[in-house]
Amino acid sequence: MIKFFKSIPYHTKTAFKSIARHLALTFSSASAVSVTLTLLMVFLVLAGNVSSFTYSIEESLQIYATIENTLTQEEITVLQSEIEAMDHVVKVTFSDKEQELESYIGNNDDEASQRLYAAYRGEGNPLLNAFVIEVDNGNNLETVSKELQDLEGIYDAAYGGDSVVMLVKAMDGVRIAGGIFVAALSVLAIFLISNTIKSAIYSRNSEISIMRNVGATNGFIKMPFMIEGMMIGVIGAILPILLTIFGYSYVYNALNGVLLIPMFRMQPVIPFAVYVSLALLATGMIVGMLGSFFAVNKYLRWKR
Amino acid sequence: MISLENVSKSYKNGVNALKNISLYIDEGEFVYIIGPTGSGKSTLIKLLDGEEIPDEGKVIVADTDVGSLKHKHVPLYRRNLGIVFQDYRLLPSLTVFENIAFAMECIGQDKLSIRRRVREVLELVSLEDKAKSFPNELSGGQQQRVTIGRAIANHPKVLIADEPTGNLDPEMSKEIMELLEKINEKEKTTIVMVTHDSTIVNNIKKRTIALEEGYIVADIKKGGYLKND
Question: Which of the 8 DSSP states describes residue A261?
Fold first, then answer.
């Protein structure tokens, strides 16, 4: 084991030398890796943002619970902390009936209606005090709202009904489909990269048998090739990473962080672009290393 | 040092390369293997260096049963051997110096002794001025000398040379032969040399083993080429 670690600098040096001396080969395989990783990057960014959209849509779903008119201010405060203590409840905002009326008036554009509703200001306000409740997950809207309806002092609780439940289900579906798509594409990327590396090593399979001829053990032969494969993966990842960081922040800034409507909030550049970059780097390195490991293993077996 | 007991080898395509060969070569001997194309010379070398496994019989080199070696142990066994290939088999992306050093690096020698020994070897094969050249910048004779240098770098017990003079002019061949003799005498290395070159066999007389169609047809201790009559 100690011998293994001691030999790493030697093998690394050998790998670098080999990269430098097979510059054309290194360049061509690294650019093939680049293309594959760029493709992967585009889909990672898309999937990441679509999933973020679905979450922000879900977060915007709220329960609107009206409060019985008979409750005093203290009772309302007690009720609010009761609701806050419920499972899945993230945030409870109290809105008294004056605020409700003002926002109702504000929703009307024409002055006639505004004047009409303004007449209800004060004692004649027919609206109820209300809580606006945010839940942790769209799937819990229904349960929470049912529990709310059973609460003493709550007049009614509404979240939009079946159509909202379906929307939440649809969002789940979008996320799962995106995940499967990215996973499938990752498998494809792994296959493409390891094949690139394999063909690069194929052109050097005579070297492998020569090395065995002069007494190099299989491990000794494999190490520099694995490091080289890793380096090719890293070199190939550079361009896609730059593209991620600069390209994504350019798009993000150009669109002010939202796509079309404010509800479609894009993933913030940091940490999202960093995560994507790290994923690309790791894919390049690990796949490059394993790709050359399997390729060398294969060619080692060709000759005794 | 080398012993073959009733060794037979045939290939999948039906060629019977060696038929029931028995052979014994002592430590420090210098032996020529001669014979026409297809007589089994290359097969004999492949059996000795572990590239092929005998169908029958045993190949023992330096106390190792070569045929029963595991795939991963073959390179370890080859460290006892220096092999000079007719097609040189130099690593194309390494310089002359690095090619010779590689054989020593893979058995874990330290840097200093590698550098010292490679210089020594380069001097022995008269290639001091080509240390930094790549194989494709050298002539055939020079490449051949590099392979000889690489083969002897680790002080092998046995040196196997497959037509080391095959691609060389007579002048160069003579030099290579002098080099091999020097190695044989100085380092007491057992040398098995496959050759076609009747001039060499007749002029520098060594034990000569003649193969024909997979059989040993002659084993002449005092040497000299077979006269086909």
Answer: S
